[in-house]
Structure formats: structure tokens, C-alpha cells
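Dear colleague,

As promised, here are the two records you asked about, laid out in our usual form so they can be pasted straight into your sheet.

NAME FIELD: protein one
SEQUENCE, THEN STRUCTURE:
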Amino acid sequence: MDTSTQQQGTGRTERVVVVTGAGTGIGRATARAFARQGATVLAVGRRPEPLDGTAAGFPGIRPLVADITAPGAPEEIERTAVDTYGRLDVLVNNAGIAGGGPLGTLGREVIGPLLETNLVAPVLLTQAAVPALEASGGVVVNVTTTVGQRGWPGNSVYPATKSALETLTRCWAVELAPRGVRVVAVAPGAIETPIADHMGLGPERRQALREWQLAHIPLGRIGRPEEVAWAITALAAPDAGYLTGTVLPVDGGALVS
């Protein structure tokens, strides 16, 4: 049962939203999009400065510095939301890291962090959040990638973690439906975010990646974080209450080209 309330005289829903990876890119845009709708947002990230930038000018956004892969972090995040605001309505599993390389170059030092950040942490955070989400009739939104539905030569582990997150989306949608919790996913394509910088690519390789991406995007451009944030907030909205298990591509048509 959705127990969301309305702000008196405004028609805006007062919801409590947790967004991980909220310091930059899609996470920052998503936190701000929810705040514009009147939600209270707990913006989670590892570094305080980017989180402060996300919250600047948005009194409804509260930064929370936390490493989602650290022991006890999922429980701390859920506890902070519930203890501070009395509820949790939406969990956005957005935090992720990219990287990897072709077969023959992959070691545990590369594979381990990808699995811990992109797959293990969302499992543990969602698990910790389920009781609060059940109480509010809440929503889990997983952020994956359309690359996980195609192939990315030389970078197999990153999209594999995101494909696994899509499988979890479908499994959890069925598992949690009797408890009144919806689970959906948004799968971005090529979006203008700092993730390529975090992959350690040099200027020439970044340019080559952009050219390869543009060659496969029917709309002929790179997406903006705000366009992905729109999809996340739309799938999490009460009006989308009959959607669960859905994976929505936001990729300029790349997946169907």
C-alpha cells in the first residue's frame, strides 16, 4: 500500500528517496529531479565535495558520505533514511564503476571491485531497504546499461555485472510483488558522464569510444544525464504503479539499431 502523502495545497508528493552514486552524472541529475518533484533525497557517495555540489541550491537533498561496498554500509544508509525521515519510498541503485579489459588482461584486482560495486552492493542495499519499502509501498530502481544487452569487445566484465543487475530486477519484481514493492530498471546507453574518465582512457581512446558509440546511435547524439533521470523518476512515480520487472532503455535507439 502506498502511504505517500501530499504537501498541503501543492499536489507534490512527499517521498523519501535514496540515490547512490549521487555525486556526479546520472546520480546527481536524478537526485535533483526527485528534489524538484518535492521529494526528500538522501544523496549517497564516497566523496563529500561532489555531493555538496549535488545538494547546492536544493534544500531537499541531504548528502551522505558512504562507500556502498564497505561492511555495514547498506544498513547504515537504510537506517539513516528511516531514522531521519521516518520512511523510505524509493531506492535508486545507481552507483557503479566501469573498467576491465580484454581476456588475457583480467585479474582479480580488476574483476573484484566491479562485482562488489555493481552487483554485490545493490543486492545488500536492496535487502536492507526492503522492510522500509514494504511499509511505504515503495520502488527499487536499478540503473544498468544497454551495452549489457549487446556486446562490448574488450570490456566484458562491466556489462556482465549490469546484465546480472537486470536479472535481479526481474527476479525481485516477482519476489517482492506480494509485499507491495515494485522493482524496475533503467538502462542508459551512451550518456555524457565522467565514467569514461574513470575508466582511465586516454584522449585518443575516449575519442575512439565516442565515435564508435555515435556510429551505433540512430538519434545521432550522446544522451544527457537529465534524460536518464527523467526515466528514473517516471518509473518510480505512483502513476507507474502497474509497472514492475520493466527494463527501460534510454539510449537513442542504439539497442534496436
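NAME FIELD: protein two
SEQUENCE, THEN STRUCTURE:
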Amino acid sequence: MSYPHRTLGSAANGTALDVSAQGLGCMGMSEFYGPGDEQESLATIGAALDAGITLLDTADMYGPFTNEQLVGRAIAGRRDEVVLATKFGNERRADGTRRVNGRPEYVRAACEASLQRLGVDVIDLYYQHRVDTTVPVEETWGAMAELVQAGKVRHLGISEAAPETIRRAHATHPVTALQTEWSLWTREVETDGVLATVRELGIGFVAYSPLGRGFLSGAIRSVDDLAEDDFRRANPRFQGEAFARNLQLVDEVRALAAAKGVPAGQVALAWLLAQGPDVVPIPGTKRRRYLAENAAAVQVELSAEDLAHLERVLPVGAGAGDRYPDMSTVRR
């Protein structure tokens, strides 16, 4: 049986993009989640393609820069099997500082650099990673539209944007996909207008961190389970009272998963897949065994009773703690 597919965007907007029902987030292969293993990462990407997962997600700032190079090596000779997504706008500079950059000249330079690192002629889905409030989004998206016209990019996306920003970007050039965090413990998009806006406009929803940065897998029971250099140690959701509260939520997912005879992570992913055919989760992993487990979530069926139970025990706002130590660059 071939892996199921979904459509991001819409034919009416001229933005329809066929992708696997789940993608693979590649970020953790290079940074943020403890030490990596390049050969295992390359093998994991290859296994994803072998399984029929077509959507690979990276960004120039992951590494920085090295994640795109890794993905480029992994897809060499298999380009026609891949829907390649990358991002710009979270600029990491040589002195170690970061800034959000949406200036048109930076958009063009960042795209050229990503094409070179990935070793490709065209990017299938190019995201504005974060919104630069010092630059009108119309100017940023004007430059992105030029990349489409030049044949360097096929589809455009935006990440962590507020409803009005999404509308303004979409009016400049049709948006194929919004990428934002969404999971059983991060459900604000359901009530803050983001989900309603993209559905009104025919924009697909790519859900990052669908496993709550690994927490919803049930495998993390203590901060000590994380590597010393794992960025989650500084994440508010993994600290103190918030951690304890979130463990209680995960235990609800684990209980349902046990009753169904499947891993907890598969229940979390199946819940997202059940939210609509326009939703494509991109769970990240750097190991083949977790890839196989995540990929099989498309076979898990949650009944109406299962979904109602999860709604009761993990309602909107149930997750404790902020998503990032600094929330100033999201939902703009």
C-alpha cells in the first residue's frame, strides 16, 4: 500500500501542492536536540523516502546552514521523490547573534544560498520563517513572488504568523502553507483565528512539533532524560511545575494509547491527522526506528469517542508553560 497523500493549498488559488500525509522534520539532525549522527540521519531520510514520505522540512538557520547541506546530500539522486521545504528569515550571523530579517535583498540572497547548500535548482516550498515587523510583509512577499517568477521557488509559505499578516501576505502572492506549532498540548491556533483564517483562504496547515517536542511520545519522564546541550532544558514547558503538569497530560495520552495497543506518539499524530485533510504534521526524528513508528500513525484510527475523550482531558490551553523562552517573534 502506498503512503497516503494530502494537498496543501488549493487548486482555486493555483497553489495545490501534493505531499505525503506526514512529512519529516530534519532540524534535530543538526542541532537543538542533543548530539547527532550524520550517517544515521542520512539513513533516516533515505528510509523516509523509501516509505513514501515525500515532504522534507529544513531551514537555513538549522545548524546553522549544515542541515540544508545534510538534506542535500541525502536527496542526491532522488530529487524527483522529494517535496523540498526550507525557510529564511531567522538570520544567524557570524558573531553568534540572531535577528529576524525580511528585507527583500536578504530574501534573494538567502534563497540563492539555500539552493547552493541543498544542491538543487528549485525549492518546492519556501517559507518566511518569522515575520519581520520592521519590514512591511508586502515587501518581503514581493521579493518572494519574484523568486517564483524566476523559477527558483515553486510555492510560498509563512511560519508563526498572525491572521492579519497571513491575509496581507496572501494578497501579495497566494500562500500555499502556514507552518505553525500544533499538537495536543499546543492548540491556540484553534481559537486565535489562525486556523480559521487559513481555512477561509484555502491555505494548507503544516504542523511542526506535533509530538510536543517529543514530550507526547511519553518517553521523556524527567529533564535528566535530555542531553546537556538539548535546548528543551531551557524551554518553559520542560521546567518545574509546568513539567509536572504536562506529565499528567501525557499520561492521559499514554493511557488511551495503551488501550488501543499503540505507542502514545501515534495517538498524538493520529489526533492531528483527524483535524482535517488540510493538516500535515512534520514530526522530527534523527533515527530510523522512530521514523517508522511515526510514519505508521496514518494507520491509527481514532473513534469519535476517542476524540471526545482527548478533547476532555487535553482541551485548548491545557499545556502548561510558554512554547519558547522568548515568545516575542511568534504570532506577528
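A couple of things worth noting about protein two: The mean pLDDT is 93. Residues 240-260 form the longest helix (21 residues).

Best,
R.
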